[in-house]
Amino acid sequence: QEKAYIDKLMEALETGYNILNNGGTALDAVEKTIHVMEESPLFNAGVGAVMTNAETVELDASIMNGSDINAGTVAGIKHVKSPISLARAVLENSKHVMMIGEGAEKFAEEQGLEKVENKYFFTPRRVNEIREIKAKERNKFDLSFTERDDLKFGTVGCAALDKYGNLAAGTSTGGMANKRWGRVGDVPIIGAGTYANNKTCALSATGHGEYFIRNVVTHDISARMEYAGQSLQQAADEVIMKRLIEQKGQGGVIGIDKNGNIIMTFNSEGMFRGYITDKKEPTVAMYSENKLNQN
Ligand code: ASP
After folding, report:
1. How far is the CA of 176 from the centre of ligand 1 (A)?
2. Is the sign of the CA dihedral 232, 292, 260, 22 positive or negative?
3. What is the 3-state secondary structure of 25-67?
């Protein structure tokens, strides 16, 4: 299983690399890299996303362009094959930033994006997972809305810097397993799960979304760089390794700054992650070993 994750992360990194190396934009690289992971059953995004309490899949995604701080985000998507492409269509082809549910699906149709049955996203692993969570809940009379056995968080994201000096970031997810009542996480909230600004950095987060929303995590990291002159690593450490830990909020961020410094900071047990630079040596990692070398 680990090999499958490593191979898929390598494929995703190489996809992004090839786009950037051929003169593509950071936005293109982010969308297409996330695409590779949405289509893989390994991650909590697209096929293989976690299931809601009603045993459906509801997807959230966002993408942001650092050069003009324009963004597109979608939430509660059930039938659009690629939520990240829909988020990009919101960014580029609408006057809005965020679309939800049926309206967003209607917009997807108008944009000619591929629609699928909700079942398209189901995998046996996730069906078993939701049934187990619900069985435990019944036994314990515990109505806490989520219970995860893996604290690795499988949301997918990407941050990129292109040849033109532009940054972009995107994130795609099924959210938290067993979510109810139209719950929306941090992923489609700009400044919480995703943020990009050419003045500072591009960031994508994974973790317990409620904490990331309340702490406006990705914007906080960017703001610390912009207003307090912190480095990307210092800012991420303050937010992820201090603030969130104080609150018992689990998760992490991946990011790149305008000078190409890369961070992958998390306070959870693991975070599947990787990076690739213009030297084309992809690096991936899964468990602790919190900091990767600065580029
Ligand atoms: N951050 C996502 C959410 O709360 C979940 C995850 O990262 O796995 O919706």
Report:
1. 6
2. negative
3. CHHHHHHHHHHHHHCCCCCCCCCCCCCCCCCCCCEEEEEEECC
Among 38, 51, 176, name the best residue to mutate to test ligand 1's pocket (greatest count of ligand atoms within 8 A of Cβ): 176
Phi, psi (5° rounding) for residue 158?
-155, 145
**SS in 3 state form for 190-221?**
ECCCEEECCCCEEEEEEECHHHHHHCCHHHHH
How many angstroms separate the alpha carbon of residue 82 from the centre of ligand 1? 17
d(CA 64, CA 71): 4
- The rounded Å distance from CA 83 to ligand 1 centre is 15
Which of the listed residues 60, 77, 155 should we mutate to test ligand 1's pocket, taking the one with most ligand atoms within 8 A of CB? Answer: 155
The pLDDT tens digits of the residues spanning 16-28 come to: 999 999 999 999 9
**Per-residue confidence (pLDDT) for residue 144, from 0 to 100:** 53
Query: What's the gap in Å between 17 CA and the centre of ligand 1?
Result: 26
- Comparing CA positions, the residue from 98, 44, 109 lying closest to residue 76 is 98
Rounded to two decimals, the pTM is 0.94
List residues with catalytic annotation.
155
- What are φ and ψ of residue 65, in 5° steps? -105, 120
Give the binding-site residues of ligand 1, using a 6 Å CB cut-off.
44, 153-155, 173, 175-176, 185-187, 193, 206-209
Q: What are phi and psi of 21, to 5 degrees?
A: -65, -30
Instruction: Dump pLDDT digits (tens) for 212-253.
Output: 999 999 999 999 999 999 999 999 999 999 999 999 999 999
